[in-house]
Amino acid sequence: MKGRKVAVQLQPTICIVGSGPSGCYLAQFLLKQWPESQIVIVDRLDHPYGLALYGVAPDHHGTRAVTKQFDRLWLNPNVKFVGNIEVGRDLELAELQANFDIVVLATGLHQDRKLSIVGGSLPGVVGAGRVTRLINAHPHEPFADFAVGQSLVIVGQGNVAIDIVRLSLSDPAKLSEIGVPASVIDALRGKAIQHISVVGRSSCELAKFDAAMIKELAQLSGVSFSAHNLEEPASHESKSAKVAAVRDLVESSPANATVSVDFYFGWQPSEISGDKSVEVIRFTSLTQPNETLELKADTVITAIGFEENDAALIRRAQLVDAQSNIEAGVLSAGLYCVGWFRRGPTGTIPANRADAKMVSESILSDFENSERLGVKLGLPAVKKLQEELNS
Amino acid sequence: MSKDTVILFGTESGNAEFAAEDMATAIDRDRNVTVIDMTDFDMNDFSTDTFYVLISSTHGEGEVPSGARPFIEALNADQPDLTGVEFAVFGLGDSTYEHYSRGSEIIEEKLRALGASRVGVYGRHDASDGSLPNDAAVEWVKELVSTL
User: Min CA distance, A42 vs chain B (Å)?
Assistant: First the structure.
């Protein structure tokens, strides 16, 4: 059986910034080797788990169950969660570094990647991350202007795009049951939504969604599905599970549907136009030269990934220097990074578990036989954390 | 004197590992129990003197989780003779999806094909209600060892 045995008896003080999956998995892995270590996980929200709560569809209970795994962290008297702390605003990163042996940044990337085309910021264009936060009742997500009309175009074909299709067309009573706020259910259903188009750059075979997500759409009632450019004209009999799943979905569509959903493969968005808000979105074909696609839409949801927040107070680029080894999660002596903040916005919760495991091994090897552990007092030495913990 | 027990877990998001640890704690009073990640298991360590408890989740289209992939690949490549090896299985899955709990079945079928024999009730947990498998797995393993 493998598994590193750490020779030192010293137990470190560790501060993890960000309590999403990467931060929580990292705490789990570090505790296995340093069961008596002091671990403080801080978050800008007043409760933990980040994207595991606000980025996962609320009807995917199995995926969310991971938070129950993390709940057990807090039963350990040496592990503390301190919420309402934004590093860079409430206290400086340097203060954490001065008082903890090990500081790890696990703040993720949560801003929707912007659609940089003409009209990309017209009213009616909304990021999928924002919609997912609204659906999950994120405390910092202002509701204001979001409401889907009759025609919705979703740009992007990852699992988040498919989540939006499913949640937009799910029974409102079911959404209510799983905690989606009533105002958001109304906004999602729109003025009797009639049409959803899901448009992506890839072919169906290379689309980023999982076939299981497409199969799940078959459970929606009263929805008919169509697919355009399902396969490249040149391609032979496809063995792709994704193509098969989309084809099954289309073929089993009911005749008496009230809503239609169209998948378009191989299109790149070129322009959004409208008088005061979105009216039309145009695409150019990536497979047939000079072909264009024009879709009427009163709402465009972009599901094209995430990027660093414009207002982010901690930026990886500012912390990287010649001594850094991002591949191993090392920013500088005693300062590490993990998860999306380390490697960018790709991969789901299991990928961040693997990332956390790798970074925990990197930390353990840096401190193997080190006498620099347990030197800094950690939590008792940081007034701001103490205050928040006792408030 | 009961056989030594090895709990082998195959995981994607850590739930199977977590349940494996809880199972070990629940039965380690009367027996020697080790928890091992399938990824780290050496085929040459299979022994008829050890009782194996396998716990695995299901990934994607009814596949084994990434943590069990090296294990299955090694079984396929080495084709070890597992005659006389006894094991029990607990499968994790989500009945919302097609291929519910299929991941553990792939492993179970492979081990039996190589001569090992499965004993006890095939345990399962359905995560479609958002629950963790730990409680069900602990109840199952206690029942299992009481009948051995």
Answer: 22
